[in-house]
Amino acid sequence: MNSAAPSPNSSRPPIPARLHDAPTAQGLAIPFLTLCHRGRTSPVWGAIDPERYALVLSLRLCQVCGEGLGSGQGPGQQAVVFVRPHDWVRGVGPEAGLHPECAAYSTRGCPMLAGRMPTYRSNAIAARITPCPDPECGCPQWIQPGPDSDEARRAGQPAEAWYSILIDARDYRIVPFQATESDPVTYGVELRGLRIRRLRKVRGTPGSGPTILDRLAAMLDLDRLTP
Fold first, then answer.
1. Is residue 220 scored above 80 in pLDDT?
2. Which residues pair with 36 in a beta bridge?
């Protein structure tokens, strides 16, 4: 999950072994998917690198560490997908998958998932048009996301409820879907027909009632308790 810079007063979770070689900023490992200036030590928190996003989806890579999620043929190969209730209803999620340990790190380090931010970061898109002083950086050529992109729609909006779904890696599939009339075809993680190993709420929204994913989680818990 790629949302925003950490709060200066927030605790920094320990970086897992899988991410020890990742570049860091403000005490956190920089996700593979995060847009960065040259050298990948100066991230634009909340902005997604479109080239890396395409690479992550096409090669089945973890959005945080950039390593393969596996084919699911080996023992214990699992993936985590972060979704919102309306993603589940639509049947496709825009968030690329993660290794379970990278997902656990994200739920603690990402201020959106950890519940430390009431709204999505609003200046991530504007930061794309502010070149850095490095003349060799490619930031002047960064492309702004379209107005109907998930990143653009989130900017400045109230935080949503987020859930993590643990699945077998063999069930992790990337599919095209129709988004809007102006952005007709995009790609995301298929949520239909998943064999869910675990579903849990990562963060809620104050004052809101149960969502479709809350009810699904309750049903799954009941199934596990029923002989």
1. yes
2. 43
**Amino acid making up residue 43:** P
Residue in the block written with tokens 């005490």? 27
CB 165 within 8 A of CB 194: yes
Instruction: Establish how many alpha carbons lie within 13 A of residue 111's alpha carbon, considering only the half-sphere containing its beta carbon.
Output: 19
Both structure tokens of 103: 């997902």
Count of other CB atoms within 10 angstroms of residue 28:
23
β-strand partners of 190: 92
Structure tokens at 35: 């847009």
3-class state of residue 221 by DSSP = helix
Rounded to whole angstroms, the Cα distance separating 101 from 157 reads: 28
42-96 per-position pLDDT tens digit:
999 888 999 999 999 999 999 999 999 986 566 669 999 999 999 999 999 999 9
* Strand-strand pairing, 28-29 and 174-178: unpaired
Contact between 191 and 91 (Cβ < 8 Å) = yes
Residue 227 confidence (pLDDT)? 65
> Quick one: residue 156, left, alpha or beta (phi over 0 = left, psi -120 to 50 = alpha)?
left
Q: Give the pTM.
A: 0.86
